[in-house]
Amino acid sequence: MKLEIRGVGKQYDAKLWALRGLSLELAPGVLGLLGPNGAGKSTLMRILATLSNPTEGQVFWNGADIARQPEALRRTLGYLPQDFGVYPNLNAVEFLEYLAAVKGIPAASARRRIDELLALVNLTDARKRPLGGFSGGMRQRVGIAQALLNDPKLLIVDEPTAGLDPVERVRFRNLLSELSGERIVILSTHIVSDVAATATDIAIVSRGRLVAHAAPEALLAALAGLGAGVRALLAGDVAHLFAWAAGAMFIPALALALALGVWSGTSKLFEGLYTALWYAGPAQPTPGLDFIGAPRRTWMFACPAITSW
Ligand code: ADP
After folding, report:
1. More reliable by pLDDT, 192 or 293
2. pLDDT in tens, 275-294
3. On the CB side of 198, how many CA atoms lie within 13 Å of its CA?
4. Looking at ligand 1, which residue's alpha carbon is closest to its atom 24?
5. Could you give the domains of the chain?
6. Exposed, middle or buried: residue 27 (CB in 10 Å: 0-12, 13-18, 19+)?
7. Smallest CA separation from ligand 1 atom 14, residue
8. From the CB of 276, is ligand 1 less than 6 Å away?
9. Ligand 1 atom closest to 205 (CA)
10. CA 225, CA 196: separation in Å to the nearest integer?
């Protein structure tokens, strides 16, 4: 089972390439696709879900070009879009039965599968309640259940934890971990801790470019190293800054800062720091990155202003 993304780009209008020259090769496991809002994650996911054609490049599912043979992928695709909507008057079973019919799954096997899936997403007790009364987390779990109706080999979930409270977020992450195994799961998020626990691979996208693709430990260590350096810099702590520059994380952290900034012709370091700080907020505690608090907000405004200047 293999998904190959080769030089994929998407241009929405003459000025905007939402995605540019992105290449990745994926085997079974969970890929955490990290990037700030507007980075191009949804654009990539829509292309992989065959809902949108790339302007450049190709995607191969087990060797077959998905633009030429979309059916081969669609049969085995599960997709939870960012803006997943439900019919508020249907209950969970009715809604899933309806979607199973749309997907062409025979009624008898759909019924069995729906029971299994409702148990998997822990909604058996709420199965007969109208979806309009569900919490955000419960709706997302219905969303995952619908994405799993056809037991997909490629499961794409776009910002699934947006709007969930911390408890629901953890529950949802655990569910995703349980679902990996013999399938490729692509999980997009702008929250580091979403992928730190679940992903077997992390890809960072920024301004439509793939800026890093590595095992979570390596990337998160580099991010934490970058955070430690920025913290010393912001505090004007020269002794710590020198110690950091002489330490083991200096090169990976600097490489990451530059990689995060490569898309921009100017002010590479500021762009890199901006993206690093984006990930460094208090809502996403990552060891070594819990330092920024209020200054982060200042930087979020200051860095784009500096770079556009
Ligand atoms: P993300 O999912 O990382 O937040 P998106 O893929 O939604 O990023 O968006 C990437 C860029 O493409 C953004 O600048 C966004 O405004 C733009 N974009 C997304 N969809 C469209 C569209 N249908 N038409 C024009 N521009 C779009």
Report:
1. 192
2. 555 554 433 333 333 333 33
3. 30
4. 12
5. 3-213 (3.40.50.300), 215-306 (no CATH)
6. exposed
7. 38
8. no
9. 3
10. 16
Looking from the CA of residue 35, the nearest atom of ligand 1 is 3
Ligand 1: which of 10, 11, 12 to mutate, judged by most atoms within 8 Å of the beta carbon? Answer: 12
Name every residue whose Cβ is closer than 8 Å to that of residue 84 and which is 6 or more positions away in sequence.
139, 140, 143
Using alpha carbons only, how large is the chain's radius of gyration in Å? 21
Q: Which ligand 1 atom is at minimum distance from the Cα of 190?
A: 3
Q: Which amino acid appears at position 155 of this protein? A: L
Q: How far is the CA of 45 from the centre of ligand 1 (A)?
A: 11
Site of tokens 């025979």: 106
For 124, the token pair is: 């058996």
pTM over 0.85: no
Which of 43, 210, 278 maximizes ligand 1 atoms within 8 Å of its Cβ, making it the mutation to test the pocket? Answer: 43
Instruction: Please tell me the distance from the alpha carbon of residue 226 to that of residue 272, in angstroms, as a whole number.
Output: 10
If you search the block for the tokens 């350096």, which residue do you land on? 229
Q: State both tokens at 236.
A: 């004007």
Distance 196 CA to ligand 1 centre (A): 25
The answer to whether 99 touches 149, Cβ cutoff 8 Å, is yes
The helices-and-strands tally (H runs, E runs) of the chain is 12, 10
Cβ(38) – ligand 1 distance below 6 Å? yes
- Each residue's pLDDT tens digit, 54-69: 999 999 999 999 999 9
